[in-house]
Each structure stands twice: as structure tokens, then as C-alpha cells.
Amino acid sequence: MEKDPKQIAENIIALVLELAKLAGEKIELGQKNHHNPKSSRSDTSGATGGLRILVGEGYFNDPKQLPEIIERLKQGGRHYSNATISMGLLNLVRERILTRFRDGGDKKWKYAIRK
């Protein structure tokens, strides 16, 4: 006897709704009931947030090296260690917002907006 996956899913949903009702909880279909702590934080907090602001301002339209980026953040009142800013830049590279490359003669990374 082959079971219909759609029918099984409907049965599970009905049982979960019944269980929630017995527990005194109100659940609506399509509603996410778990709390995401990152969603309550501002996208502009911390070093990565400061870098996101610079991206929004178009600062990375031209390639920039780490010392230039650190100085620009300090001008905006954001004082972070080199390691913290480097990690924030790497996170934005991983999110595919920025790209990084090594300049020919200079072996230091340059960061620019990914187009």
C-alpha cells in the first residue's frame, strides 16, 4: 500500500494545529513562530554594518586597500581593530557584495563592489 505524501503532510498539519490548540497557542499557517535574533539587530551595527554603509554610499566603486578603509571608517566615528575590519570585509566578500583581488606589483588585497 503506497501512501500519498500530500495526505500525510495534511494529517501532520492538522495534528500540530490540534496540539497547539490544546496547549493554548494560536498558530496560523504560513506564520513563522521562531524568533530570529539577527532580525532584531540593525544591519548597520558593528564593523560590518559600517562597511555596509560605505557600500551604500558608493565608497567601494573604486578599489580600496585596508588602510584606506580603516581611515574612512574612523572619519565616520567608527573605530575598530584591523582584524575586525578585515573580518567584516571578508564576510562581505563571502556574501558576494564585495570582491577582492591582489594588485599586480602590490601584494595587498584591494576591495571593490561586485558588479
Features:
single chain, 115 residues, mainly alpha, Arc Repressor Mutant, subunit A, 10% strand, elongated, HTH HARE-type domain-containing protein
Short account of what is shown:
With 115 residues, the chain is mainly alpha-helical. It contains five helices and three strands, in the order αααβααββ. It has two domains: 26 residues; 72 residues, Winged helix-like DNA-binding domain superfamily/Winged helix DNA-binding domain (Arc Repressor Mutant, subunit A, Orthogonal Bundle).
Detailed description of the structure:
The protein has 115 residues and is mainly alpha-helical. It folds into two domains: 5-30; 42-113, Arc Repressor Mutant, subunit A (Orthogonal Bundle). It contains five helices and three strands; from the N terminus they run αααβααββ. Strands 1-3-2 form a three-stranded antiparallel sheet. It is elongated and about 65 Å long.
